[in-house]
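---------- Forwarded message ----------

FYI, see the DUF3373 domain-containing protein record below. Original note from H. follows.
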Amino acid sequence: MRQRILGSVITAALLTTSAYADDTLMQRFEKMEKEMAALKAELNALKADNSRLSTQLSTPAATASKTEVASAGKVNETLEEMQDQIDDLNKKTNGNNLKFGVDFRTSLDNIHYKMADGSKQKNDALFSNRLWLNMSYAATKELSFVGQLAYNKIFGERSMTSTANTGFEGFDWVSNESAYNDELRVRSAYFFYNDDEFFGTDIPWTISIGRRPSTEGHLVNFRDDVESSSPLAHTVNVEFDGASAKFGTEELIGLDGSYFKLCAGRGMSNAEPRFSAAPYSGQDAQTTNVDMVGIIVVPYDDKQYSTGLQYTYANNLID
């Protein structure tokens, strides 16, 4: 019914840590790890010497000289100093698991519409800002947390907002994808667990639960030059609250990069407001739950060529 000619000039101000900075940080960590390994090796050697001297001193038949007694005391002092150094290194390395990154973009869009009745609508210069504040935390080697705060807003005060579509424009599924207002919202916040074996089998797997954006999927991701999410964007391109599990089958079937992924989420909850006769119940709510499940199967992916299929099912979708 309408055609949209969109010319977008994007000025990207990427404040994420550069690759050089990442390399420097990794080098520092590697250096610290080597220092800790060397200190631990020296500590073990000193402990062995200390144990030998202690045995000699505690043996009745031993005739320890003053030199040996002094040596044992010096070893104990050195052990304490080295233990303090190891404690300091542990504090420095363990305290650097929280990382932040920023993706900030200012864009200028030239928009023209040709309506069904032949009339035209346009906006020659639509300016907007988009901010993504990325954060990640590694609690352990297997368990990590990933979050993202998003901000997407048109310059200045917005006028002529359609009352008929306002509710959908700020809708939870697309609130961070629409240039809406100056509120800072949580785009993603989820826990992520990964392991190299699934119940003893050689199947790497992951599971995550929380708020995950299934936006900027395959093909659409080229538009904004970002890494794609799992879904095919022409079928699923929304943010959702739910869970997903991914299982690698490369070793099982012998095809590069093969995997399958299970997803489930809730797009709307049948729940009354907090300050009502029955808070959070669905007794008198006017809406029903909107749930979705899906499976993604990728038989082959060598990073140059990829094949995949996707099936999704949702109930009670909004008309």
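H. also flagged this: Strands lie at 3-14, 98-114, 120-138, 143-154, 185-195, 205-214, 238-248, 259-268, 290-301, 306-314.
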